[in-house]
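Allow me, if you will, to draw on your knowledge of protein folds for a short while. A protein sequence and the structure tokens that stand for its backbone fold form the material at issue. I would ask you to consider whether the tokens describe a fold that such a sequence might reasonably adopt. Thank you for your consideration; the sequence and its tokens are set out here:
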Amino acid sequence: MPLQIVRYSSIYNKKHFSSGNSELDRCLKEQSSQDAKRNQAITYLLVDDESIKGFYTLSSYSISKEIISKETLKALNLSYADIPSTLIGRLAVNKNEQGKGYGKYLLRDALNRAVIISKDVASVAVIVDPIDESAKSFYLQFGFFELLNSKKLMIPIKTIKKLLSK
């Protein structure tokens, strides 16, 4: 089976997944099923022959316009106090698969889904809350930028559309 990204299913063995970060591993192994049942987050898996290579989660989200710079607010022409967005809550690659471009592949898929979703459920941007400095550096290289007084990063849907068209 070639690599594919599928919605979380218990048919895939998550027991052997290890990203090197216990919090991310716990998210996949213990939370994914419950989050989906509670409509809190949907987990997408990068799989090959029923082996999980990586995953990410998506949720609806909102951010206060107070943590967005005046320049960004002006550029996006935002008027609501809370800005509708999409959250990539978790993104991880199995440590045996790291360095193969799977993180970029997962991020691209997540951003593409966010753009598609934004056509039916309003979303102005994608937000991430990097788990550490390494994750922060990863997102910054793709055009995410820091929000004011927050560890969260943001990339506007308009920017994502331009990136995906390349």
